[in-house]
Structure to design on (364 residues):
C-alpha cells in the first residue's frame, strides 16, 4: 500500500470511484460519436491511475501493470479533454485533431515505459532528471491547453447553448487548473526534494490536501461524464447542446428587430402579446425567438416581456404627468393585465413591493 494513502476508509472510497470511472469509461468507448471515446479513455486513465497510486508498491516494477495502470499517463489528461471538446465542432478534421494532440503524450509515455523497464540502470541513475523533464513537459502542456482551450471555447460560444457552454467551460478550466497546481507542486518537489523538502511534509501534503481535493475532482469528473450521456439528457435535461442553426445565422437580424419592436415600438405594452405573434413580426418562428431569448437573457419569453413591463412601469412612475394614476393604473399602461401578476412579478424582480418602491422613490 502506498504510504501516502494510509486510511482504509479513504482507500475504499477511492476504489469505489475508480471502479465507477473505469466502468463508465468502457461504456463510452462503444458510443457511436467519436468524441465520447476520448471522454471514456480519460475516465479509464483517471480510474486506473488511482489504482496504481494506491497499490504502487505492488505495481511499480511490473511492466504490464505500468502500461495498463501507470506509466505517467496523466500527461494525456489535458490533450484528451481538449480533443473531446474540440470535436464538438463539426467543421474540424477529426483525424488531424486526434493525431496532432495525442502524438506528444504518446511519445512521452512510450519513452518513460521503455527507459524504466528496458534500461533500468540508466533510469535509476538518472531518475530525478528523467522525472523532472517529464513533469516540466506536463506542466508546459497544461499551460498550452489552458490557453488553447479557452481560445477554442471563445470560438464555440456562439454555437453552444448558454447553459452547456458554462458547464463545459467550468469543467475544462476547473480540472486543468487543478492539474496545473499539482504539476507546479510536483516540479518544485522534483527540483529540490532531496535537499530542501522533508519526506514527511511531502506525504502530509499528499495525504491531507491533494488527496481529498483530488477525490472531489474525481467525483466531479464522474458526475460530468454521467450527465454527458444521451440517456441522462433525454430523461432529465431535455436540452440540446447546440443552438438552432437559424438562430446562429440570423442572430444580428433578430437582435436589431427585437430592439425595434420591443424597445422602440414597445410591443410589450400590449397585454395580449403572444410569442408567435411577435415572432411573425420579427420574421422567425416562435421556437427560434424563444431560444434566442433563453440564450441571450437566460429567461423565458413571458419573463422577458414582464421584465420590460416592470422597467416601463418604473419610467412611468417617475413621470410627473402620471401623478393621478394609481400604481395598478400605471402597471396596466405598461402592459400588465392582472393586478396579482403585476405585484408578484414586481416583488420577484425588485425584491420589494410596488408600494415600498414608491415610498423609496419619494424619499429621493
Amino acid at each position: 500500500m502506498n504510504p501516502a494513502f494510509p486510511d482504509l476508509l479513504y482507500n475504499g472510497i477511492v476504489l469505489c470511484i475508480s471502479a465507477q470511472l473505469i466502468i463508465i469509461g468502457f461504456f463510452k468507448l462503444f458510443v457511436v460519436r467519436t468524441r465520447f471515446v476520448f471522454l471514456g479513455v480519460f475516465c479509464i486513465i483517471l480510474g486506473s491511475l488511482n489504482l496504481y497510486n494506491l497499490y504502487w508498491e505492488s505495481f511499480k516494477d511490473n511492466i504490464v501493470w505500468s502500461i495498463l495502470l501507470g506509466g505517467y499517463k496523466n500527461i494525456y489528461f489535458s490533450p484528451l479533454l481538449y480533443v473531446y471538446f474540440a470535436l464538438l465542432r463539426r467543421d474540424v478534421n477529426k483525424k488531424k485533431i486526434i493525431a496532432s494532440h495525442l502524438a506528444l503524450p504518446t511519445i512521452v509515455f512510450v519513452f518513460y515505459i521503455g527507459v524504466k523497464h528496458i534500461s533500468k540502470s540508466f533510469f535509476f541513475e538518472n531518475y530525478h532528471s528523467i522525472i523532472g523533464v517529464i513533469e516540466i513537459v506536463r506542466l508546459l502542456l497544461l499551460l498550452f491547453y489552458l490557453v488553447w482551450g479557452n481560445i477554442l471555447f471563445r470560438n464555440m460560444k456562439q454555437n453552444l447553448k448558454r447553459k452547456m457552454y458554462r458547464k463545459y467551460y467550468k469543467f475544462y478550466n476547473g480540472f486543468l487548473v487543478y492539474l496545473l497546481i499539482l504539476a507546479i507542486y510536483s516540479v518544485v518537489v522534483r527540483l529540490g526534494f532531496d535537499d530542501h523538502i522533508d519526506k514527511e511534509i511531502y506525504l502530509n501534503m499528499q495525504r491531507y490536501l491533494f488527496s481529498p481535493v483530488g477525490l472531489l475532482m474525481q467525483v466531479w469528473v464522474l458526475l460530468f461524464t454521467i450527465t454527458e450521456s444521451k440517456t441522462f439528457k433525454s430523461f432529465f435535461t431535455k436540452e440540446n447542446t447546440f443552438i438552432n442553426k437559424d438562430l446562429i445565422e440570423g442572430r444580428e437580424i433578430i437582435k436589431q428587430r427585437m430592439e425595434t419592436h420591443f424597445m422602440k415600438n414597445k410591443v410589450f405594452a400590449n397585454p395580449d402579446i403572444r410569442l408567435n405573434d411577435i415572432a411573425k413580426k420579427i420574421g422567425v418562428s416562435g421556437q427560434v425567438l424563444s431560444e434566442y431569448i433563453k440564450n441571450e437573457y437566460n429567461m423565458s419569453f413571458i419573463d422577458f416581456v414582464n421584465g420590460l413591463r416592470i422597467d416601463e412601469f418604473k419610467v412611468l412612475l417617475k413621470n410627473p404627468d402620471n401623478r393621478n394614476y394609481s400604481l395598478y393604473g400605471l402597471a396596466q399602461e405598461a402592459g400588465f393585465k392582472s393586478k396579482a401578476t403585476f405585484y408578484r412579478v414586481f416583488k420577484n424582480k425588485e425584491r420589494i413591493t410596488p408600494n415600498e418602491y414608491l415610498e423609496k422613490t419619494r424619499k429621493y
Remarks:
- The chain has two domains: 8-237, 245-363.
- Residues 234-238 have pLDDT under 50 and may be disordered.
